[in-house]
Structure formats: structure tokens, C-alpha cells
User: Fold this.
Amino acid sequence: MKSRRFGAALCLVAMLAGCGGGGSSGGASGGTATGGGPSATPAPPPATAACSLRDRQEWAGAQLREWYLFPETLPVALDPASYASVDDYVDALTATARAQRRDRFFTYVTSIQAENAFYASGSSAGFGVRLATDSAARRVFISEAFEGASALAAGIDRGAEILAIGADAGTLRDVGAIIAAEGTAGITNALGPNTAGTTRTLRVTDAAAGTRVVTISKTDYTLTPVSSRYGAKIIEDGGQRYGYVNLRTFISTADPALRQAFSQFRTAGVTNIIVDVRYNGGGLVSIAELFGDLLGGNRSTADVFSYTSFRQEKASNNETRFFSPQPQSVGATRIAFIGTGGTASASELVANAFVPYLGAGAGLIGTNTYGKPVGQIALDRASCDDRLRVVAFATQNAARNGNYFDGLAATVEASCQAADDITFPLGDPREASTRAALNFLQGRTCTRIATGAVSTAAARTLSLDPVLNARRELLTPERPDTVQREVPGAF
Assistant:
């Protein structure tokens, strides 16, 4: 999760494993993206003595010792000389908390420029797709394609399968062979760096156009947080009307899009809402709070949305956030939250906030979520383009419940198991999770989602696909960039 800034160099943040975070809606300290924003591919840190590897490692270690939410887990002494990068050193410092499942690579160093570009406007570079893999069957699928990017322009959309990848038509390699030789990391390598101009030839197949070979290039594009195709709509089913909103990521530009969606729901008198965050790895706390306000039109300004708590020495930063209904708010009476192992942080924060008020009227649909009830602050060293995302606070709902490190399935009163059916568009009543959400809102019975600890490797699992009879998970590199942290599976 990420929230507004409360100091000269701090901003709260929440996201998926390895997921990064931005700052306030105006950007974290170190610069605000304006106009077109900084380049999605920033320059490396300056090669100065102040930005030497040892200096950067020692700076990161000092920040952790001051702010880390679990200071008792930090080693008393750890020599940076044994580690080849800042990331490796930070991973070593947080290894104990990671083993306890309290910090699953949530603490890391990233680029100030790249984060500001993404959180201010969704600026990134790539094909504009979200990929999921079935490693056992050695297959790769398109779970989602983003408007304004090259893949969708080439006719590649949700439900397509990538059969082969090459630098050109003469070097195509079958996906199955790539995964057999290199694992799913081989797919990341084959697709090349996320920089504008990277070109790849793909053999793809789908039900609409069959099998074909296409050549596409990665371009700079702006991610739309609420899709213009299916992001917000009113679904009529069984003689009733339901609001459906799909939020891809919690960035600043989601504000007007969410307000517009809920204005539509309010005008239609809709109070049963489907919140689809099945792939949403988190983002700005300020947008999570707005989301809660838009859903909580029937909440009092004395009702607690969330509690934010720092370690004892930093308790002066603790905060209680109350609901603040907006002109576009609806008084949601039942909410179906569609989630998967790719649902984390700010997404979980919103769902958890409604459990004390709606009880069994707030249901989790799909599979168990990732489990991240903690958030990061941003500590910047602008001279080196270093931003340390350090886990520094925990969140709880009004009932003081924030212990969902193993996902929300054990926290919500109601849940319904459902698949992520990529053979239908998101938000289509025929799609398995959307259908299950409608059934829940209509009071029909269902199979509860299984609870229990989810490993880091399994946390990205979407569901058991009902058509392919295969288990798919979002493709995430070992060292994801800013966009891949916040938009799991993005390439």
C-alpha cells in the first residue's frame, strides 16, 4: 500500500511481493511526474563516490535500522562486502522476517524516476499484456491486454496463447522448449527487456483468429487503471442490476475513473457491487481510501476505515483513517470482491475494511489472496536515483483485524471458490469468477475458498482453469521492474 506523504521524505505504500510503491498523489519526495513524466527507462545511478555500491548498501542498511517494522529480526551486524548488489544486501538483512512470512521481498531498492512516472500517470514500456503460465504443461497465456499498447493493436487479447517466441520469424522457439530448458524465467528472457523499441516475433493462437505469426515492438504507453472496454459497467442479470468495477492498479489516475464509475452506479440506484481486483497487486493507499469512500456511502464519518501502526519508536506516525463519503458514493449493501493469488496489499486493505460492517455481505470470490497486511514507506536518495521501499507499518480494519499474512480467505465471513476463465472477457457474466460473484450477490450457495498458508511461489496462482484443466499463475521475473511489481504479470 502507498499513501499520501506525511513528511519531507516519506510516503506510505502497499503492494504485492516485490511490489513497489509510489508516494502521494503528487509523487514521493524526489520529484513529481508532470506532463509526459520522466522516461519509463531511467538512467542508472551516477557513478560517483557517494553512489558507490558500498555507500548505497550502507545507506539502505541505516534506513532499515531506523524504520523497519520488525527491527528485532535484523542481524546485529552484516558486512555488505559479501554482497554483489544493494538488492542482495537488503534481501540478506530481511531474510529472517521473510522466513517468518512477514516480509516476502516487500523491502527493496528501486528507481525514483521509474516509480514517479508510473504512479503519476501509469507510464511504462512493453507490449502491454499480462501473462500467465502453466509451468507443468509448459504453456503461456494472455490474461489481459491493455488499451493503447502494441499487443492489443495487433489483435492479441485475453484468452490468446503464445506458442513460440523469437527475435524474428527465423529464430522462433517453441514455448514448451523454452520452459523445458530454462523454466518460466526463460519466457522473460525470450521476451527481452521492457524498453521501447524491443521487437519480438510471436506465434499466437486464439479462438477468434486461429494461429498466426505477428511481429510487435515494445512501446511507451500509459496504463489505464480502469479499462475503457470493461472496467466499469452495470450488469443486468436475473432481473436485477449490479455494478461491476475492475481496477488494475492503485495509481493517481484511478481517481477520476473510479468517481465516474460510481457516479454511474449511483445514478442507476445500484447497491450490489462487484469489485474485480483479481490481478491487482496494490498501490497508493490514498486511492484505496477513495475506493472505500465510494463504496461506503452509508458509512458515518465516525466509522473507521483503517488503522495504520508503525513500530513503537515511530508511533507518532500512527493514524486512524475514517470513512469520508464522496458525492459519487453508493451505499453498498453487498460487495463481491473477486481475488486471486495476484490480489495484494491495497486491494486487500479495501476488502478487509468492509468485513466489520457488512459481515457475510462482503464476500471473497475466486481464490485466496496473497496476504500482505503491511505497507512500505519510500525513503529517497535522489543523487543516486535510489528509493528504498521499506516495510514500516501495518494496517488493521475497524475490528483491529490485520492478521491475514496467509490471505483473506480466513478473514472474510463469506467466500466462493471460482476459476479465472480466460475464454471470456473480464466482467462478462459468463466468465466463471464474474458468474460466481453474481451468484453470491443473489444469495446462492457456493463452495468456500480453502484457507491456509500460501507459499511465495504459489501466491501468484490464479485458479484451476475450467477449460484447459491447468493451473496458471502470473509470470513475474525474479527482479521485477516498477510496473511488474504493481501490475503482476505485465510485459
